[in-house]
Fold these 3 entries.
Entry 1:
Amino acid sequence: MSERSITNISILGAGAMGSLFGGLLAESGQRVTLLDVNDAHLAAIRERGLRLVTDSGDRRVHGLTACRPEQASGQADLLLVFTKTLHTEQALASVARHLGGHTQVLSLQNGLGNAEAVCRHVAPEQVLIGMTTWPADLHGPGHVESHGSGVVRAYSADGVERPACAEVAALLDAAGLRCTVDADVWAAIWEKVAFNAALNSLCAVTGCAVGQLAAVPQGPELARAVVQEVLAVARDEGIAVDDQHCLASVADAIAHHRTHKPSMLQDVLAGRPTEIGSINGEVAARARRAGIAVPRTEMLLGLLRLMEARAREEEPSV
């Protein structure tokens, strides 16, 4: 494994979250390439820069390279993966020439199964896995907003601490993304899965922004119940999750991310497939194998599957 430093950073999946990370990294002085298939978004960034609206202000970030994955030149030192889990294999295959034996690949994707997917494309010792609680919304081509705070927790996927863990964390931390090297990252990932299984799927089914779930007592109550179902599955797999920390994160999001529309809700509104399979779906599958009842998680999975099926039926024929 090469010990060369990280100078070229690429973001695979430059939607709301990928663009937020790419923009903040570029502002901190890093050379960043945004890779996506949204041509209108890429063109807006090339022409006018990325409009980034955060609690620090409204500005445009220039100097970003923005192109489709197959157009990426050279090899990345660090590839941050933000694609939806259902697109991971195809996305990584499209950047095969952009990956070298030295490239560190950090998945900050939602759901379960991401580490396994990335390890099918690069050596396991090149793979880092993590989670982030930063909120982000895409408000149109070349325009991303993020309000509130978040963190990043990351570690090597195989559990071996390497210098790359600290280097990647330092780069993200210097960009204001509050990243820590965390050997207990799998607990953080499962807690994020529980968070998303509750809030993403509830918002997607109801059409509510996160804060609107507090309109009736049953909203937060249902979110808490889903969290506890998911964490029961995590504990069965030997993951030392923190129930109270996760429940507090959900309560904080409902209280402070009041207008945030989670990506799963955005996908439903746009008629796109959601990540329900890698979140509620994966939890439900593991729960069935373990003989653990997760009725609310299963119900939300079924409702989202029905909504996706209806969206497919309503697609206009070509």
Note: Residues 185-206 form the longest helix (22 residues).
Entry 2:
Amino acid sequence: MRDLRGVRILIVEDDWVLAGDLARYFGNMGAVVLGPAATIEHASMHTEVAEAAILDINLNGRRVFPIADELMRRGVPFVFFSGDEDIVIPERLRHASNLRKSSDSYAIFDALFPPERSALAGRPPVNLSDNVFSILPKLRLAARLLLGDVGASDRLVERTLERAIDEIDTRRAGVSTEDWLNGIMRNIAGSGGTRLLH
């Protein structure tokens, strides 16, 4: 399991028992838990510093979409976590994972921090959108986990995208955009990540 030390995770959940379970789970991995927030107003106090978020869609009858919009604007990865099946997620937010409250903490972790996919066991690649905009939040968080410094992480993402443009013609067929960009990013971090810290 990845080391989440120092990663600020916003938990927006109005069920205090469930919110406490999530807070303990991510806190035990070293994450800094913001909240848990049970209202839109409380959640909005943390959106500027959050680096990932778990969002209950229905907060006592109010929708969490304004918080999701703000997180998306900042490029912060988030997952919806809801017990309601009849709520329609706006088209602009459908790139985010939508998990049922019957999902366990491991599923939430995997949705926020997708495991590296490989050709092990001949498993086919996960069908992900090739829209780079929707991948950016996950790419930024992966960079943050690699380098641990916000400024250096953003520089790493910039270098990754620059190199991707240069290497687009050599991209292997069958590799998803997300896996391809993550591979480029790991190579840059491995060969010169420390230089990005200065």
Note: The longest helix spans residues 150-167.
Entry 3:
Amino acid sequence: MKIVDSTLADSILDIHITNQGNFYFLEGIVISEINEGITYTFNEASKVIQAAHNFYGPDISVCYISNRVNNYSLKPSDWLKFFRNSNNQLNGYAVVTKSENSWFNALMERLFFKTDIVRFDNLYKAIDWSKARNATIDNKTSLAS
């Protein structure tokens, strides 16, 4: 289900639209919907990261949901660049897909990511997980202070 087909309109705080896809900024959550047939690169991801920093501020702390409603590919070597050069804080990474091919691609990304990638077949469940994950991390941060 695409976000435009959901009941999430009131939760969307901002939308960043590129030739590569749409990126929805919610409270503590970034949801991507990459366009059909795209090869998504670090160069494009860098632009979205900058947009997220502009929106959330320099101390960004969000969960990322890849809502894989279209078929696209990632350039694996670029994810090494992303995780080495990224100073942002991802509290969690979720993939929403019913496609086994799309999930296989996410498993390949896991090779470059230090945190688990969690799979969901429902966007609402991914959002609920992201909210709970953010709350847990916020609680740990406030207890450590």
Note: The two ends are 40 Å apart (CA to CA).
